[in-house]
Structure formats: C-alpha cells, structure tokens
Write a structure and sequence with these properties.
Elements (H helix, E strand, L loop, with lengths): L1 H39 L10 H8 L5 H9 L5 H9 L2 E15 L2 E13 L4 E13 L5 E7 L4 E2 L2 E2 L1
Antiparallel strand pairs: 1-2, 2-3, 3-4, 5-6
Length: 158
C-alpha cells in the first residue's frame, strides 16, 4: 500500500511540475506575441505609427540596455517605413518560439514570425526569423532581440 501511495504522490508532483512548465511557456509566448504585434501592426500604411511613439511604447517590454540599443538602431522603424514604402498594411499572423537555452535566469529563444502584407490588390505572407532573450525572474523582460535582415517582400529587403 505504501508503495502505491509513493507512486501516486510522485505522479501528482510530476504532473504539477509539467503543468507549471507549460503555463510558463504559454505565458512567454503570449508576452512575445503582444510585443511583436505592437512592433509590426500597421493598419494604415499612409499614416503608420510614429517611430518615436512606437519606440517609447516598447520600453515596458525591454531591459534598459536592450531599449537603448534597439532605439539607437531604429529597430522599431522597420515596419512603419516598409508599410509606407509598399503602401501595404502589416499584420502578425503567427509566431513560433523555440527555446534554445536557459542560463542564470535568462532564456534564449529562436522565433519565426508570419507577417501578412496587404496592399489592397495583393496579399503575401512572409516569414521573418530572429532570436531573443528573456529574463524570467519576477516578470518577463526582453534583454535582447535580433532579427534576420535579409527578409524580402515585393522587391524590398527588410
């Protein structure tokens, strides 16, 4: 009887730990999705989000160093500038995260974005890949975000 109780107890603990891990994965994916939707959504290409306002709105997702680096490199101007140049709206359709490693409270991910471009006469979905790192201490904070800059749509690289 004692043996069965031990097996049941171990099973319950294992299931509980697995559930916590799945909840964390879902929470990270929701956090990154919210961040990338804000970064890439352009509904009116002739009146795209202001780069300064957009960049400032991203600060809440980022560490101070990441914010300074990404703002200095005009990281958040890519989508508004491209939307205006192509006269196309941009929408994040899907995001896939793949955990690469966790070290000292920072988890690194590879990601793939599925972006939908629509100029009213044609639509196209483009895949954009990148990597980011997130601290998982008390709240999620992005400490690094990098995107492959050789993505192309309608003859324009971004």
């Amino acid at each position: 009887m004692k043996k069965w109780m031990t097996i049941i107890l171990i099973s319950i603990i294992s299931f509980g730990l697995a559930s916590c891990s799945n909840q964390d994965d879902a929470a990270v994916e929701d956090f990154v999705r919210e961040y990338k939707v804000k970064q890439y959504t352009v509904t009116d290409p002739m009146n795209p989000p202001d780069e300064v306002i957009l960049t400032e709105s991203m600060e809440k997702y980022l560490s101070e160093d990441a914010y300074i680096n990404l703002a200095a490199n005009r990281f958040y101007s890519v989508a508004p500038d491209l939307a205006k140049k192509l006269n196309a709206s941009i929408e994040l359709k899907d995001i896939t995260l793949e955990e690469v490693k966790t070290e000292d409270g920072v988890t690194s991910y590879k990601y793939s974005l599925e972006l939908l471009f629509d100029n009213g006469t044609k639509t196209e979905t483009v895949e954009r890949k990148g990597e980011l790192s997130i601290t998982t201490a008390e709240e999620f904070v992005i400490t690094r975000d990098w995107e492959n800059k050789i993505t192309e749509i309608w003859g324009e690289k971004f």
